Automatic annotation (TrEMBL):
It comes from Georgenia yuyongxinii. Keywords: DNA-binding, Transcription, Transcription regulation. InterPro entries: Homeodomain-like_sf (IPR009057), HTH-type_TetR-like_transc_reg (IPR050109), HTH_TetR (IPR001647), MT1864/Rv1816-like_C (IPR025996), Tet_transcr_reg_TetR-rel_C_sf (IPR036271). It holds the Pfam family TetR_C_33. GO terms for molecular function: DNA-binding transcription factor activity; transcription cis-regulatory region binding. It comes from the Bacteria. Residues 5-65 form the HTH tetR-type domain. This is TetR family transcriptional regulator. Residues 28-47 bind DNA.
Length: 189
């Protein structure tokens, strides 16, 4: 009989909390079991294994990032790139342990993860619509944007920006640079 109050969603909730406290690499089923107040074998009634838990957390993280980006872009018409970039950074800062899960590509046997990743790409594509890019140019734009944002938030989270310069100013300039680069892609197309 499963412990009262413990179900797959609660196990994922606990996994998310622990990841945000100790980091993605520190997330273990043993830590989740301890937090839940159960023995480790009890978790297997709710998740198949550690990979299953990590996949479920990745779906949750992608869904949360998608919702954050979609809301930000909707609330800032005409400033989609800036709003999207700031929402991306805010999500990574608010969820430092689960954020690394958003970069994982889905395997063929992970339709929920693929759907969550696809929804995230849709909102990014929509935000980039102002640049009038399509096909390979749009793919390149999405990759450029995600790489820049991921690199920035990863370096920031890891303490990689310890110079005296204000990080906010650097972020603002990076987003302006991305705007210029995406505009140049449009001009080239």
């Amino acid at each position: 009989m499963p412990r009262a109050g413990l179900n797959p969603e609660r196990v994922v909730d606990l996994g998310c909390e622990i990841a945000d406290e100790v980091g993605w690499d520190g997330l273990t089923l043993a830590a989740v079991a301890q937090r839940a107040g159960v023995r480790l074998p009890s978790l297997y009634k709710h998740v198949a294994n550690a990979d299953d838990l990590r996949t479920r957390i990745a779906v949750r993280a992608l869904t949360g990032l998608h919702e954050s980006l979609a809301a930000a872009v909707e609330d800032a018409p005409g400033l989609e790139l800036d709003a999207l970039a700031r929402a991306y950074r805010d999500f990574a800062r608010a969820h430092p342990g689960r954020y690394p899960a958003v970069v994982r590509a889905a395997r063929p046997d992970e339709p929920e993860l693929a759907a969550a990743g696809g929804a995230l790409l849709e909102v990014i594509n929509a935000a980039l619509a102002e640049y009038g890019l399509a096909g390979d140019d749009l793919v390149d734009a999405v990759r450029i944007l995600r790489s820049a944002l991921h690199g920035f938030v990863t370096l920031e989270a890891g303490g990689g920006f310890r110079m005296a310069r204000d990080v906010e100013q650097t972020f603002t300039r990076m987003v302006a640079g991305l705007d210029a680069a995406l505009g140049a892609l449009r001009a080239r197309a």
